[in-house]
Specification:
Strand content of chain A: under 5%
Number of strands of chain B: 2
Distance between the termini of chain A: 35 Å
Helix content of chain A: over 70%
Oligomer: heterodimer
Strand content of chain B: under 5%
Helix content of chain B: over 70%
Largest sheet of chain A: 2 strands, antiparallel
Number of helices of chain B: 13
Strand order of the largest sheet of chain B: 1-2
Distance between the termini of chain B: 32 Å
Number of helices of chain A: 24
Radius of gyration of chain B: 22 Å
Number of domains of chain B: 1
Number of domains of chain A: 2
Order of helices and strands of chain B: HHHHHEHHHHHEHHH
Order of helices and strands of chain A: HHEEHHHHHHHHHHHHHHHHHHHHHH
Largest sheet of chain B: 2 strands, antiparallel
CATH class of chain B: Mainly Alpha
Structural class of chain B: mainly alpha
CATH topology of chain B: ABC transporter involved in vitamin B12 uptake, BtuC
Radius of gyration of chain A: 26 Å
Structural class of chain A: mainly alpha
Shape of chain B: globular
Chain lengths: 568, 359
C-alpha cells in the first residue's frame, strides 16, 4: 500500500511494464481475431468513432486503469504508470502494423487485411503507424487519472461510457421504431441508421449522466427504502405495472424483425429458467439440455405437422403437454442411471447424451420417422390469425414463451423455499452433508433433472412452432451451451439473472450480426471471467451474495458456487 | 413409512433401468455381431483393415487422452479445453507444412519429407504447449482451491473461447492439409484386399514411442516422480520440498505436447483442419481416459486403443448385421454410449483410477 506522498521511485515500474505488455497482447488479439475490423462496420457515433475503434479504446483505457491501480500510486504520479502502460499497449499495435508491412501476415491470420491497417493507421499508411503509441499514451494517462479520481467524479465517467455504448448500439433500432411515429424528426436528429449522431451522443450523455447524478444526489433510493412498507408498495407497484406493460407492448412497437429476436430471447429466458432449477438450485451441470429440447421439438412437430411426417395434426395446445411429459420421461430414463455418478462426470455424460440424440435425429436410422436432415415441415402456429392481427407471426410465440417463462419462474420461486428446494440447495452446497442430514440424493436430484428436462421440452415445443419446422440441424450443442452460459452469467439460482443473461447473451447476437460472429468467443470469455471474479453471477440470489460476504470476511475465500462434492 | 416405500420403489426402478440397459446393449452387440459374421459379407482382410484403422485412430485418442488423464490425476479437473489444444497443434502443423510445401521442401525427397514431418511436430508442440500454459495460467490457476464446479465451468469457457478465437483468426473454412507423398504410398505387403499406408505405420510407431517415453519419464525421472507425488497428495508433496506449481505446469506442458503431436498425426491422416476439429476427438479422448481409468497413464493408452477399435470395427460388426442403414453415421453414438456405460457401470475404468480418494 502506497500512501499519497509516494514518490517516483516507489512506483513498481516492472509491474507497470507487464500490465502494458498484457494490454498490447489484448489489443493485438482484438485486431487479429477480427473484432476491430468487423465491428468497424458499425459506427458508435457517426463519422466520429466506430465500434471496432471503441473496442481498442476501451482496451487502452483499461490498461491505464489497471496499471495505475497495480502501481498503487494515489498521488498525481498516477498519470505516469497509466501513460507508460498505455503507450506500451499502443506500441503493440504499432508493431503489428510494422510487421504487417514487412511480411504478409495474412497468409496465417485472415484479419490482417488492408482494412485493418487502414483502421490502425487512420488511413495514413506506414507514416501513421506511430499514431497508435500516442493514442495509447493519452488513453493510458486518462485511464490512470480516472483510476485515482474520487468516487464522485468516477461515477459520471462510467455512466458516460456505458450510456454511449448502449445508446450507440440500439440507435438503429430505436430510429426504425420512432420513424413511424410523430417522433420521426427527433429520431433523425439523434440517430443515424447505424449509431448515434453527434447531437444524439451529446444528448445521450447529458440525459444519462445528468439523470444518474440527479438520482444519486436526490437520494431517491434511500428515501424509498426509508418509507414505511405501505408507501414503498405505492412506489414499486406502479413501476412494476409500467415495466410489465412495456414488456407486453415491446414486439408491437419495435417491428417484426425485433419481434422475432425478442421471441427468441423469451424462449431462452424460458429455457434458462428451466436449467436454473437443475444447475442453479441443485448444482447439476447439465450439458445435454438440447436432448430434451429435441424431444419436445420433435414431439410437437410430429403431432401437429400437416406435412409429410406429421402423424396426428393435433393443435399445438394438445401436443404441448405430451412434449413436456415425454421430455420428463426421457429425463427420468437418462437421469436414473447417471445421477449416481459424481458431479464433473455428470457434465460429460450429459454432453454425451446430447450428442447421441443429435446424431440420431439426423441419422438414416430414424429417417423414416423424423425425416433426418429434411426435417418436419409445416408446423402450424398455435393460434391461427390474419397476418395483420396483433398476434401474427412471432408475436404470439413471444407471448406464449413469456407465459411459459412466468410459469417456470413461479414454480422455481415457490419451490426454492420449500422442503425440496432446500434439499436441492443443500445438495449443491455439499452432497455428503446433505445425505447425512437425510436427503435422498438420487430422488432429489432426479426430480430437479426431470423438471429441467420438462422445461427444456417446453422450450423445444415453443421453438418448433416459432420456426414452423424442425430439422436435425436445429438440434445443436450450442443450444445447451447458450442455456448454460445464460444461467452462469446471470447468476446460478437467480431468476432475474436468467432474464438478464438471456437478454444480453441471446438478444445482442441475434440483433447484431457483428456480435453473432463472436458470440461464443464472448461466452467463453464471460464464463471464465465470471468464474474468476464473480462466481455468484451478475444478479446473484440474496442467498449467494450473502454467502460470498460471509466467506470473504471469515475465511478469505471468494467462491460460492459449490460443487456437489469437495475434494479433500 | 410412506417415504420408505417411495424410496424402495425408486431404488427398484433404478436397478431395473440399469439392468434393462445393460441387457439391451449386450444383446445388441451379440445379436448384431452374430448376424454380421453369419452373413459373411466381409473378408478377413477387410476386417484386418478395419482393425488397423481402429488402432490408428485409437493411438491418436490415446495420445490426447494422456493429457486429460494426467491433468485429472493432478488437479481433479476435466480439462475441457484440451481438445482445443489438440486442434491448435493441428493448425500449427498445417502452417508449418504449407510453408515447407511452398518452398518445395516437403516433397523434395524422402529425407526432407521426414524432416518436414519432424518440423511440423515441433511447430505443433510449440503452439500447443504455449496455449496450454496460457490457459492454465489464466483460467485454472486462480481457481485451484475453488469448489469443483467452478474450474469446470471455467474450462468449458476456455474451450469455447479458444474455438472461436481460432475461428476469428483463421475463418470458418476447412483447411486442406498438404500431401506428404511418401506417407501416402502403400506399404508393400502383397495382400489384395488389405492395404496399409506408411502414414498408418508412422502413427502407430510414433504413438508407441511417445507413450513409452512418457511412461519412462513419469516412472524414472525426478520430475516424473514429483508429478506422481503431487497427484497423490499436494500438501504432503509440498512439505517434501516439491515445487507443486512447477509439477502442475509441467503436467500441462507434457499433456499439451502429446496433444500437439497427435494433432499433426490427425491432420496427416484426415487431411483437414478447422476450428471445430478438436471438439469431438477431445470428448472421445476423454472417454478413452475414463475407459482406462482416469489418472492412470497406461490406462489412457489402453482406453484409447480400445475406443479406437470399437469405433473402427463396431459400426460394421454390431450394426451392419442388423440392417441398420449407413451404420458409420452412428460411430459417434457407439463411442458416447460406451462413455455413458463406463461411467455408470465401472466409473473406475478398466485398469482402475489412480485417484487416491474418490471425492
Amino acid at each position: 500500500m502506497h500512501d499519497a506522498s509516494a514518490g517516483f521511485a516507489d512506483v513498481p515500474w516492472r509491474t507497470v511494464i507487464r500490465v502494458g505488455l498484457l494490454g498490447a497482447g489484448i489489443a493485438i488479439f482484438l485486431c487479429l481475431v477480427g473484432i476491430v475490423p468487423v465491428f468497424h462496420a458499425r459506427p458508435l457515433i457517426k463519422d466520429v468513432i466506430s465500434l471496432g475503434q471503441t473496442a481498442l479504446v476501451l482496451a487502452l483505457l483499461g490498461t491505464g486503469v489497471v496499471a495505475a491501480r497495480t502501481a498503487g500510486v494515489r498521488s498525481r504520479l498516477a498519470i505516469l504508470p497509466g501513460a507508460l502502460a498505455g503507450s506500451i499497449a499502443g506500441a503493440g499495435v504499432t508493431a503489428l502494423v510494422l510487421i504487417g508491412e514487412l511480411i504478409n501476415v495474412r497468409v496465417v491470420f485472415l484479419n490482417a487485411s488492408p482494412l485493418l491497417y487502414e483502421i490502425l493507421t487512420f488511413g495514413n499508411g506506414l507514416a501513421g503507424s506511430w499514431i497508435a503509441i500516442v493514442i495509447g499514451a493519452v488513453l493510458g494517462a486518462a485511464g490512470g487519472i480516472a483510476a485515482r479520481l474520487p468516487m464522485a467524479a468516477r461515477r459520471p465517467l462510467t455512466t458516460f461510457v456505458l450510456a454511449l455504448l448502449l445508446a450507440g448500439l440500439f440507435a438503429g433500432i430505436l430510429r426504425t421504431a420512432m420513424l413511424t411515429t410523430p417522433l420521426a424528426g427527433l429520431a433523425r436528429l439523434l440517430f443515424s441508421s447505424l449509431g448515434l449522431t453527434v447531437i444524439g451522443a451529446i444528448a445521450t450523455v447529458v440525459v444519462f449522466v445528468g439523470g444518474r447524478e440527479v438520482w444519486f444526489y436526490t437520494r431517491v433510493r434511500q428515501r424509498v427504502v426509508a418509507m414505511p412498507p405501505a408507501g414503498q408498495r405505492l412506489v414499486t407497484w406502479p413501476l412494476l405495472a409500467v415495466a410489465a406493460l412495456m414488456v407486453l407492448v415491446l414486439p408491437q412497437a419495435l417491428g417484426p424483425f425485433v419481434a422475432q429476436v425478442i421471441a427468441y430471447v423469451a424462449l431462452y429466458v424460458l429455457m434458462g429458467l428451466g436449467l436454473n432449477i437443475t444447475l442453479g438450485l441443485a448444482g447439476l451441470l447439465d450439458l445435454g439440455f438440447v436432448a430434451f429440447f429435441a424431444v419436445g421439438a420433435y414431439t410437437v412437430g410430429l403431432l401437429t405437422s400437416t406435412a409429410e411426417f406429421g402423424i396426428a395434426q393435433w393443435p399445438f395446445w394438445a401436443a404441448v403437454p405430451f412434449a413436456v411429459i415425454f421430455a420428463m420421461l426421457f429425463g427420468a430414463v437418462l437421469g436414473l442411471p447417471i445421477l449416481g455418478i459424481r458431479g464433473d462426470y455428470l457434465a460429460i455424460a450429459t454432453l454425451g447424451f446430447g450428442e447421441i440424440i443429435r446424431i440420431l435425429a439426423g441419422s438414416d436410422l430414424l429417417k423414416f420417422a423424423l425425416g433426418g436432415p429434411r426435417g418436419i415441415l409445416n408446423v402450424p402456429k398455435p393460434i391461427a390469425v390474419e397476418p395483420t392481427h396483433f398476434l401474427a407471426g412471432p408475436n404470439q410465440m413471444y407471448y406464449i414463451a413469456l407465459a411459459g417463462a412466468a410459469l417456470i419462474a413461479f414454480v422455481a420461486w415457490r419451490l426454492r423455499a420449500s422442503r425440496i428446494g432446500r434439499a436441492w440447495i443443500s445438495i449443491r452446497e455439499d452432497e455428503d452433508v446433505a445425505e447425512a442430514l437425510g436427503v435422498n440424493l438420487v430422488q432429489t436430484k432426479l426430480l430437479a433433472y426431470m423438471l429441467g428436462a420438462g422445461f427444456a421440452g417446453l422450450g423445444g415445443a415453443v421453438f418448433v412452432s416459432l420456426v414452423g419446422s424442425v430439422f436435425s440441424s436445429s438440434i445443436q450443442l450450442f443450444v445447451s451451451i447458450n442455456v448454460v452460459a445464460i444461467v452462469v452469467v446471470g447468476g446460478m439460482g437467480s431468476i432475474p439473472g436468467a432474464v438478464l443473461g438471456a437478454v444480453f447473451l441471446i438478444g445482442l447476437p441475434e440483433l447484431f450480426r457483428e456480435f453473432s460472429e463472436y458470440r461464443f468467443l464472448f461466452y467463453g470469455a464471460a464464463l471464465i471471467a465470471m468464474m474468476l471474479y464473480r462466481p455468484e453471477g451478475i444478479l446473484p440470489t440474496r442467498f449467494a451474495s450473502r454467502e460470498v460476504h460471509l466467506k470473504s470476511s471469515e475465511l478469505g475465500a471468494d467462491t460460492v458456487v459449490a460443487a456437489p462434492t469437495h475434494s479433500p | 413409512m410412506y417415504a420408505r416405500v417411495v424410496e424402495r420403489i425408486t431404488e427398484g426402478a433404478i436397478a431395473g433401468v440399469l439392468w434393462a440397459f445393460r441387457v439391451a446393449v449386450v444383446l445388441l452387440v451379440i445379436v448384431g455381431s452374430a448376424l454380421t459374421l453369419a452373413a459373411g459379407r466381409y473378408s478377413a482382410e477387410a476386417w484386418l483393415s478395419l482393425i488397423v484403422s481402429g488402432a490408428v485412430l485409437g493411438s491418436i485418442y490415446a495420445l490426447v487422452a494422456l493429457g486429460y488423464t494426467m491433468v485429472y490425476g493432478i488437479l481433479r479437473l476435466i480439462n475441457f479445453a484440451h481438445g482445443e489444444i489438440f486442434m491448435a497443434g493441428t493448425f500449427g502443423g498445417y502452417f508449418v507444412a504449407t510453408a515447407l510445401a511452398g518452398i518445395g521442401f516437403l516433397n523434395l525427397n524422402p529425407l526432407t519429407s521426414i524432416l518436414s514431418v519432424l518440423l511440423m511436430m515441433a511447430g505443433a508442440i510449440a503452439v500447443s504447449v504455449a496455449l496450454a500454459l496460457l490457459v492454465e495460467r489464466i483460467a485454472y490457476r486462480p481457481l485451484r482451491n475453488a469448489p469443483r464446479l467452478v474450474p469446470l465451468i471455467s474450462a468449458i469457457g476456455a474451450s469455447f473461447f479458444l474455438q472461436y478465437a481460432f475461428r476469428g483468426f483463421f475463418g470458418a473454412g476447412i483447411y486442406a492439409y498438404p500431401t506428404v507423398s511418401i506417407l501416402d504410398a502403400q506399404v508393400p505387403l502383397g495382400l489384395e484386399a488389405f492395404r496399409m499406408k506408411w502414414i498408418d505405420v508412422l502413427v502407430l510407431t510414433s504413438a508407441l514411442l511417445m507413450m513409452a517415453g512418457l511412461f519412462l519419464f513419469v516412472q524414472r525421472t525426478k520430475l516424473g516422480t514429483a508429478i506422481r507425488a503431487v497427484s497423490e497428495d499436494k500438501a504432503t508433496a509440498a512439505l517434501m520440498g516439491i515445487d507443486v506449481n512447477r509439477a502442475i505446469v509441467m503436467t500441462f506442458a507434457i499433456g499439451a505436447a502429446m496433444a500437439g503431436a497427435a494433432g499433426v498425426l490427425y491432420g496427416l491422416i484426415f487431411r483437414q483442419v478447422y476450428f471445430f476439429t478438436g471438439f469431438v476427438p477431445g470428448i472421445k479422448a476423454f472417454t478413452a481416459a475414463v475407459l482406462g481409468g482416469i489418472g492412470n497413464i497406461p490406462g489412457a493408452m489402453l482406453g484409447g486403443i480400445f475406443l479406437g477399435e470399437v469405433e473402427g470395427v463396431g459400426p460394421t460388426l454390431f450394426l451392419s448385421g442388423l440392417n441398420v442403414p449407413s451404420p458409420n453415421q452412428l460411430r459417434d453414438v457407439i463411442a458416447f454410449t460406451m462413455l455413458v456405460m463406463v461411467l455408470i457401470f465401472r466409473p473406475s475404468g478398466i485398469l482402475g483410477e489412480r485417484v487416491a480418494q474418490r471425492a
